[in-house]
Amino acid sequence: MKTLPLLPEFNRSQRRGIFILLLLIFSGLIAVTCYDRIFTSSKYNESIPSDLQCQYDSLKKMALQRQKPQFYPFNPNYLSDYKAYVLGLSPQQIDKISAFRQSGRYFQSKQEFKQVAGLSDSLFSKLEPYIKIPDFKFNKIQSYDKHKHLTTNDINKATTEDLQSIYGVGPVLSKRIVKYRNAIGGFKDMSQLKKVYGLEPEVVARIKAKFVIKSQPQTKSIIKKSINTATEEELKQVYGIGDKLARRIVKYRQSIGGFTVKEQLNDVYGLSPETIKRIWEHFTIENPAKIRLKINLNDANIKELAKNPYISYQLAKKIVSYRTLNGAFHNFDDLLKVPGYPVEKHKRICLYLKL
Predict the structure, then answer these.
(1) Which residues pair with 354 in a beta bridge?
(2) Mean pLDDT calculated for residue range 277-285
(3) DSSP states of 15-51 as a string?
(4) Among 55, 100, 107, 133, which one is most buried in terms of CB atoms within 10 A?
(5) Are 249 and 303 members of one domain?
(6) At residue 138, does pLDDT exceed 50?
(7) Which of 95, 114, 141 is the last residue of a domain?
(8) Do 345 and 310 form a contact (C-beta atoms < 8 A)?
(9) Does the predicted TM-score (pTM) go above 0.70?
(10) Is 86 exposed, middle or buried (0-12, 13-18, 19+ CB in 10 A)?
(11) Which has more pLDDT, 144 or 231?
(12) Are 193 and 204 in contact (CB under 8 A)?
């Protein structure tokens, strides 16, 4: 039986030509694809400068190095949490070290450090050559524990040097404790140490372990001075007031012409209620400042009202607008009807006004 040729409508030569054309097209597609993969990849690689490639390789190497624990000499008695983490210690092991040191104790040997932290033998073998615990630290710490250097263990008579024997108390904190003790006339209860700025709870616990209250504080009569004549040095005698706050109080006092009522001290930026209370324990307003020029509430324009130290320009506009719509003020309490009026400053505002 004779089979029909493919594409019978064409003769043999035409069919041969069609097959050759398809073969050429197929070969061309393959050639184009190979060219794109070979030459484009080569071109891309050649487009990266050598210096950038070096930087990339260097950064990649550094990133791999950072992933590995970094070992360096360290003293476990002063090891920070971050450095401990870098050395390869787990958060649980870091917590154990912190709890040990917060109790007032110190690592005196490498084995003690291993036992307290719960280090595995493999990790300890890597860290052991880098653990450095100087011997002189032991002698110094032991002398502290035996109270050999203490002149007294009475907290109300302790010097700054005595207080610095406590781990965590340096020159700044020891001076701050003594200053606070002098400001309150002596400690009546050890819990008052918590009010000293910067003392951590664990440091307070160490102080309580070494010091007690033997001599009760004597109540001494305080001769109050006038706050309108107080100098910066006199203001700094109050616990909680440093150079900045003392300078700020004097500057504010000058801007208002002197204190007339105690509430004016609340407007000094940075003064806490506790500090203000201590100020009035040492100072008073003996001679209230006399306000020479009072502003007429019903006649003053916006600019004149804004001269009042407690009235802003925006508030002055509201007061004048209210007066224009509702007529003259009959008394100072009518100001309370002005929208946005600061009620808490009403008494101070009225000091500089008249009707």
Answers:
(1) 296
(2) 86
(3) HHHHHHHHHHHHHHHHHHHHHHHHHHHHHHHHHS-HH
(4) 107
(5) no
(6) no
(7) 141
(8) yes
(9) no
(10) middle
(11) 231
(12) yes
